Amino acid sequence: MILIDGRQTSAKIKEEIAATVSQIKQQNQRVPHLAAVLVGMDGASMTYVGAKVRACEFVGFDSTLIELPEDTSERELLNQIKALNNNPDIDGFIVQLPLPNHIDDQKILMTIAPHKDVDGFHPVNVGRLTLDLPTFISATPYGIMELLERYDIPTSGKHVVVIGRSHIVGRPMSILMSQKRKAGNATVTIAHSRTENLAAITKQADIVIAALGIPEFLTAEMVKENAVIIDVGITRVPDTSKKKGYRIVGDVDFQSVSKKASHITPVPGGVGPMTIAMLLKNNLLAYHRNL
Ligand code: GUN
User: Looking at CB atoms within 10 Å, which of 1, 20, 232, 256 has the fewest?
Assistant: First the structure.
Protein backbone atom coordinates (compact mmCIF):
# COMPACT_ATOMS: atom_id res chain seq x y z
CA MET A 1 0.00 0.00 0.00
CA ILE A 2 1.28 3.44 -0.96
CA LEU A 3 0.34 6.35 1.25
CA ILE A 4 -0.43 9.42 -0.87
CA ASP A 5 1.36 12.17 1.02
CA GLY A 6 -0.47 15.46 0.59
CA ARG A 7 1.81 17.36 2.95
CA GLN A 8 4.95 16.45 1.03
CA THR A 9 3.30 17.06 -2.37
CA SER A 10 1.88 20.39 -1.25
CA ALA A 11 5.31 21.45 0.07
CA LYS A 12 6.84 20.52 -3.29
CA ILE A 13 4.26 22.58 -5.22
CA LYS A 14 4.86 25.56 -2.93
CA GLU A 15 8.61 25.24 -3.59
CA GLU A 16 7.90 25.25 -7.34
CA ILE A 17 5.76 28.38 -6.98
CA ALA A 18 8.42 30.04 -4.78
CA ALA A 19 11.01 29.34 -7.51
CA THR A 20 8.76 31.02 -10.10
CA VAL A 21 8.29 34.04 -7.81
CA SER A 22 12.08 34.29 -7.38
CA GLN A 23 12.44 34.51 -11.15
CA ILE A 24 9.75 37.19 -11.29
CA LYS A 25 11.64 39.18 -8.64
CA GLN A 26 14.93 38.76 -10.49
CA GLN A 27 13.30 40.34 -13.51
CA ASN A 28 12.23 43.27 -11.32
CA GLN A 29 8.57 42.64 -11.97
CA ARG A 30 5.84 42.99 -9.37
CA VAL A 31 5.03 39.75 -7.51
CA PRO A 32 1.60 38.04 -7.55
CA HIS A 33 -0.86 39.40 -5.01
CA LEU A 34 -3.69 37.39 -3.39
CA ALA A 35 -6.38 38.95 -1.19
CA ALA A 36 -8.73 37.18 1.22
CA VAL A 37 -11.92 38.58 2.73
CA LEU A 38 -13.00 37.19 6.09
CA VAL A 39 -16.33 38.23 7.59
CA GLY A 40 -16.80 37.52 11.31
CA MET A 41 -14.84 35.38 13.74
CA ASP A 42 -15.62 31.75 12.78
CA GLY A 43 -12.78 29.72 14.32
CA ALA A 44 -12.17 27.31 11.43
CA SER A 45 -12.35 30.14 8.86
CA MET A 46 -9.83 32.21 10.83
CA THR A 47 -7.48 29.20 10.89
CA TYR A 48 -7.86 28.56 7.14
CA VAL A 49 -7.40 32.19 6.17
CA GLY A 50 -4.39 32.51 8.47
CA ALA A 51 -2.83 29.48 6.76
CA LYS A 52 -3.51 31.02 3.32
CA VAL A 53 -1.78 34.27 4.30
CA ARG A 54 1.23 32.38 5.70
CA ALA A 55 1.44 30.32 2.51
CA CYS A 56 1.55 33.57 0.48
CA GLU A 57 4.45 34.76 2.61
CA PHE A 58 6.23 31.43 2.13
CA VAL A 59 6.11 31.53 -1.68
CA GLY A 60 6.80 35.28 -1.88
CA PHE A 61 3.34 36.49 -2.92
CA ASP A 62 1.99 39.76 -1.59
CA SER A 63 -1.17 39.19 0.41
CA THR A 64 -3.94 41.35 1.80
CA LEU A 65 -6.32 40.14 4.48
CA ILE A 66 -9.53 42.11 4.75
CA GLU A 67 -11.22 41.35 8.07
CA LEU A 68 -14.78 42.61 8.37
CA PRO A 69 -17.07 42.47 11.42
CA GLU A 70 -19.82 39.84 11.69
CA ASP A 71 -22.51 42.53 11.26
CA THR A 72 -21.11 43.76 7.90
CA SER A 73 -24.06 44.34 5.56
CA GLU A 74 -24.39 42.55 2.25
CA ARG A 75 -24.07 45.91 0.49
CA GLU A 76 -20.82 46.73 2.30
CA LEU A 77 -19.38 43.36 1.37
CA LEU A 78 -20.50 43.78 -2.26
CA ASN A 79 -18.75 47.16 -2.34
CA GLN A 80 -15.59 45.62 -0.95
CA ILE A 81 -15.66 42.97 -3.70
CA LYS A 82 -16.19 45.56 -6.41
CA ALA A 83 -13.18 47.48 -5.10
CA LEU A 84 -11.07 44.30 -5.30
CA ASN A 85 -12.39 43.59 -8.82
CA ASN A 86 -11.21 47.04 -9.88
CA ASN A 87 -7.89 47.06 -8.04
CA PRO A 88 -5.15 46.34 -10.62
CA ASP A 89 -2.67 45.38 -7.85
CA ILE A 90 -4.77 42.37 -6.83
CA ASP A 91 -4.47 39.35 -9.15
CA GLY A 92 -6.98 37.14 -7.39
CA PHE A 93 -9.05 37.02 -4.23
CA ILE A 94 -11.31 34.79 -2.21
CA VAL A 95 -14.22 35.43 0.11
CA GLN A 96 -13.93 32.85 2.87
CA LEU A 97 -17.07 30.74 3.37
CA PRO A 98 -19.31 30.26 5.29
CA LEU A 99 -20.63 33.84 5.44
CA PRO A 100 -22.97 35.08 8.19
CA ASN A 101 -26.62 34.08 7.61
CA HIS A 102 -27.78 37.59 6.65
CA ILE A 103 -25.51 37.52 3.58
CA ASP A 104 -26.47 35.61 0.41
CA ASP A 105 -23.41 33.51 -0.53
CA GLN A 106 -24.48 33.13 -4.16
CA LYS A 107 -24.93 36.87 -4.63
CA ILE A 108 -21.45 37.46 -3.23
CA LEU A 109 -19.75 34.77 -5.33
CA MET A 110 -21.49 36.00 -8.51
CA THR A 111 -20.07 39.50 -7.93
CA ILE A 112 -16.45 38.34 -7.95
CA ALA A 113 -14.92 39.08 -11.37
CA PRO A 114 -14.42 35.63 -13.00
CA HIS A 115 -10.81 36.48 -13.95
CA LYS A 116 -10.00 37.08 -10.25
CA ASP A 117 -12.07 34.16 -8.90
CA VAL A 118 -9.15 31.97 -7.80
CA ASP A 119 -11.55 29.75 -5.79
CA GLY A 120 -13.19 28.81 -9.10
CA PHE A 121 -16.69 29.16 -7.63
CA HIS A 122 -18.17 31.67 -10.12
CA PRO A 123 -20.72 30.15 -12.56
CA VAL A 124 -18.62 31.39 -15.49
CA ASN A 125 -15.64 29.40 -14.22
CA VAL A 126 -17.75 26.33 -13.45
CA GLY A 127 -19.28 26.62 -16.94
CA ARG A 128 -15.84 26.90 -18.51
CA LEU A 129 -14.78 23.76 -16.63
CA THR A 130 -17.71 21.79 -18.08
CA LEU A 131 -16.75 23.00 -21.59
CA ASP A 132 -13.06 21.99 -21.21
CA LEU A 133 -12.01 25.66 -21.44
CA PRO A 134 -9.11 27.10 -19.40
CA THR A 135 -10.48 28.12 -16.00
CA PHE A 136 -9.74 28.21 -12.28
CA ILE A 137 -10.40 24.71 -10.93
CA SER A 138 -11.51 24.89 -7.31
CA ALA A 139 -8.82 23.93 -4.83
CA THR A 140 -10.00 20.52 -3.60
CA PRO A 141 -10.70 18.88 -7.00
CA TYR A 142 -7.56 20.53 -8.41
CA GLY A 143 -5.53 19.13 -5.51
CA ILE A 144 -6.90 15.62 -6.11
CA MET A 145 -6.04 15.80 -9.84
CA GLU A 146 -2.53 16.89 -8.91
CA LEU A 147 -2.11 13.97 -6.47
CA LEU A 148 -3.34 11.44 -9.08
CA GLU A 149 -0.92 12.90 -11.65
CA ARG A 150 2.10 13.13 -9.38
CA TYR A 151 1.60 9.59 -8.08
CA ASP A 152 1.21 8.33 -11.69
CA ILE A 153 -2.10 6.67 -10.92
CA PRO A 154 -3.60 5.21 -14.10
CA THR A 155 -7.04 6.70 -14.75
CA SER A 156 -7.64 6.21 -18.48
CA GLY A 157 -10.48 3.74 -18.99
CA LYS A 158 -10.70 3.11 -15.25
CA HIS A 159 -13.92 3.19 -13.26
CA VAL A 160 -13.99 6.10 -10.83
CA VAL A 161 -16.79 6.26 -8.27
CA VAL A 162 -17.26 9.70 -6.73
CA ILE A 163 -19.40 9.65 -3.59
CA GLY A 164 -20.97 13.08 -3.10
CA ARG A 165 -22.37 15.63 -5.54
CA SER A 166 -21.39 18.91 -3.86
CA HIS A 167 -20.73 21.91 -6.09
CA ILE A 168 -17.19 22.35 -4.82
CA VAL A 169 -15.97 18.73 -4.75
CA GLY A 170 -18.10 15.86 -6.09
CA ARG A 171 -19.58 17.52 -9.17
CA PRO A 172 -16.37 19.15 -10.50
CA MET A 173 -14.41 16.00 -9.65
CA SER A 174 -16.74 13.88 -11.78
CA ILE A 175 -16.33 16.30 -14.70
CA LEU A 176 -12.54 16.49 -14.44
CA MET A 177 -12.05 12.74 -14.32
CA SER A 178 -14.17 12.24 -17.42
CA GLN A 179 -12.26 14.85 -19.45
CA LYS A 180 -9.61 14.13 -22.08
CA ARG A 181 -6.69 15.12 -19.88
CA LYS A 182 -3.92 13.77 -17.71
CA ALA A 183 -5.53 11.92 -14.78
CA GLY A 184 -8.73 11.90 -16.87
CA ASN A 185 -10.41 9.71 -19.51
CA ALA A 186 -12.06 7.72 -16.74
CA THR A 187 -15.51 6.14 -16.69
CA VAL A 188 -17.19 8.05 -13.90
CA THR A 189 -20.08 7.15 -11.63
CA ILE A 190 -21.38 9.83 -9.28
CA ALA A 191 -23.10 8.40 -6.23
CA HIS A 192 -25.00 10.31 -3.53
CA SER A 193 -27.44 9.97 -0.65
CA ARG A 194 -30.19 8.53 -2.91
CA THR A 195 -27.95 5.92 -4.56
CA GLU A 196 -29.23 2.36 -4.16
CA ASN A 197 -26.82 -0.52 -3.49
CA LEU A 198 -23.89 1.84 -3.05
CA ALA A 199 -21.54 -0.91 -1.83
CA ALA A 200 -22.16 -2.92 -5.02
CA ILE A 201 -21.12 0.16 -7.04
CA THR A 202 -18.07 1.13 -4.96
CA LYS A 203 -16.90 -2.50 -5.12
CA GLN A 204 -16.55 -2.10 -8.90
CA ALA A 205 -14.43 1.04 -8.58
CA ASP A 206 -10.76 1.22 -9.52
CA ILE A 207 -10.70 4.62 -7.79
CA VAL A 208 -13.08 5.78 -5.05
CA ILE A 209 -13.31 9.46 -4.20
CA ALA A 210 -15.20 9.79 -0.92
CA ALA A 211 -16.59 13.30 -0.49
CA LEU A 212 -19.86 12.92 1.39
CA GLY A 213 -18.90 14.26 4.82
CA ILE A 214 -19.78 11.22 6.94
CA PRO A 215 -16.88 10.10 9.14
CA GLU A 216 -15.47 6.62 8.38
CA PHE A 217 -18.36 5.87 5.99
CA LEU A 218 -16.36 3.84 3.45
CA THR A 219 -15.38 0.46 4.91
CA ALA A 220 -13.22 -2.40 3.61
CA GLU A 221 -16.27 -4.46 2.55
CA MET A 222 -17.22 -1.65 0.15
CA VAL A 223 -13.98 -1.60 -1.87
CA LYS A 224 -12.19 -4.04 -4.11
CA GLU A 225 -8.66 -5.29 -3.65
CA ASN A 226 -6.02 -2.80 -4.94
CA ALA A 227 -8.42 0.12 -5.36
CA VAL A 228 -7.11 3.69 -5.12
CA ILE A 229 -8.85 5.56 -2.29
CA ILE A 230 -9.10 9.35 -2.11
CA ASP A 231 -10.59 10.62 1.15
CA VAL A 232 -11.96 14.17 1.05
CA GLY A 233 -13.68 14.07 4.46
CA ILE A 234 -12.62 16.48 7.21
CA THR A 235 -15.12 16.10 10.04
CA ARG A 236 -14.19 17.41 13.49
CA VAL A 237 -15.01 14.65 16.00
CA PRO A 238 -14.94 15.54 19.74
CA ASP A 239 -11.88 13.95 21.39
CA THR A 240 -10.95 14.94 24.94
CA SER A 241 -7.50 13.33 24.58
CA LYS A 242 -6.55 16.08 22.10
CA LYS A 243 -5.41 19.55 23.13
CA LYS A 244 -7.90 21.15 20.73
CA GLY A 245 -10.74 18.93 22.05
CA TYR A 246 -11.35 17.32 18.65
CA ARG A 247 -9.67 15.25 15.98
CA ILE A 248 -10.14 15.35 12.21
CA VAL A 249 -11.72 12.22 10.73
CA GLY A 250 -12.08 11.37 7.04
CA ASP A 251 -14.95 9.69 5.15
CA VAL A 252 -12.91 6.48 4.93
CA ASP A 253 -12.35 3.88 7.65
CA PHE A 254 -8.60 4.11 7.14
CA GLN A 255 -7.77 1.22 9.46
CA SER A 256 -9.60 -1.41 7.40
CA VAL A 257 -9.58 0.16 3.91
CA SER A 258 -5.81 0.80 3.88
CA LYS A 259 -5.24 -2.98 4.10
CA LYS A 260 -6.97 -3.47 0.73
CA ALA A 261 -5.99 -0.29 -1.11
CA SER A 262 -3.11 0.06 -3.56
CA HIS A 263 -2.95 3.82 -2.77
CA ILE A 264 -4.77 5.82 -0.11
CA THR A 265 -4.81 9.41 1.15
CA PRO A 266 -4.64 9.75 4.94
CA VAL A 267 -6.70 12.24 6.96
CA PRO A 268 -5.15 14.50 8.03
CA GLY A 269 -2.23 14.87 5.63
CA GLY A 270 -3.83 13.82 2.34
CA VAL A 271 -6.16 16.00 0.27
CA GLY A 272 -6.44 18.79 2.89
CA PRO A 273 -2.90 20.19 2.67
CA MET A 274 -3.17 20.30 -1.15
CA THR A 275 -5.90 22.93 -1.22
CA ILE A 276 -3.78 25.91 -0.21
CA ALA A 277 -1.06 24.97 -2.70
CA MET A 278 -3.69 24.83 -5.46
CA LEU A 279 -5.12 28.21 -4.45
CA LEU A 280 -1.62 29.65 -4.82
CA LYS A 281 -1.28 27.95 -8.20
CA ASN A 282 -4.57 29.52 -9.32
CA ASN A 283 -3.36 32.92 -8.17
CA LEU A 284 -0.15 32.50 -10.15
CA LEU A 285 -2.29 31.66 -13.17
CA ALA A 286 -4.39 34.80 -12.56
CA TYR A 287 -1.17 36.83 -12.37
CA HIS A 288 0.17 35.50 -15.67
CA ARG A 289 -3.17 36.07 -17.39
CA ASN A 290 -3.32 39.63 -16.06
CA LEU A 291 0.15 40.71 -17.09
N1 GUN B 1 -14.33 27.56 3.22
C2 GUN B 1 -13.86 26.28 3.28
N3 GUN B 1 -13.13 26.00 2.18
C4 GUN B 1 -13.13 27.12 1.42
C5 GUN B 1 -12.51 27.45 0.18
O6 GUN B 1 -11.85 26.65 -0.48
N7 GUN B 1 -12.74 28.71 -0.26
C8 GUN B 1 -13.49 29.60 0.42
N9 GUN B 1 -13.65 30.80 -0.11
N10 GUN B 1 -14.07 29.33 1.56
C11 GUN B 1 -13.88 28.09 2.07
Answer: 1
How far apart, in whole angstroms, are the C-alpha atoms of residue 98 and residue 105? 8
**C-beta of 95 in contact with ligand 1 (< 6 A):** yes
Per the document, the length of the chain is 291
Backbone angles phi, psi at 52, to 5 degrees: -65, -40
Residue 291 has pLDDT above 90, yes or no: no
Average pLDDT over residues 92-109: 98
pLDDT digits (tens, 9 = 90+) for 87-100: 999 999 999 999 99
Q: Is the CB of 282 under 6 A from ligand 1?
A: no
Domain termination site, one of 80, 114, 148: 114
The answer to whether 162 and 188 have CB atoms below 8 angstroms apart is yes
State the distance from the centre of ligand 1 to the C-alpha of 244, rounded, in angstroms: 21
Tell me what pLDDT residue 210 has: 98
> Residue 166 sits in which domain range?
139-264
CATH number at residue 95: 3.40.50.10860
Query: Of 152, 208, 227, 206, which Cα lies nearest the Cα of 183?
Result: 152
Residue 232: pLDDT over 90:
yes
pTM listed for this prediction: 0.97
The residues carrying an active-site annotation are: 52, 96, 119
The answer to whether the CB of 283 is under 6 A from ligand 1 is no
CA-to-CA separations, 266 to 4, 5, 44, 174, in angstroms, rounded: 7, 8, 20, 21
On whether residue 7 sits in a domain, the answer given is no
Close Cβ partners of 128 (under 8 Å, ≥ 6 residues apart): 134, 135
Helices (H), 60-186: 74-86, 105-111, 123-130, 139-150, 170-178
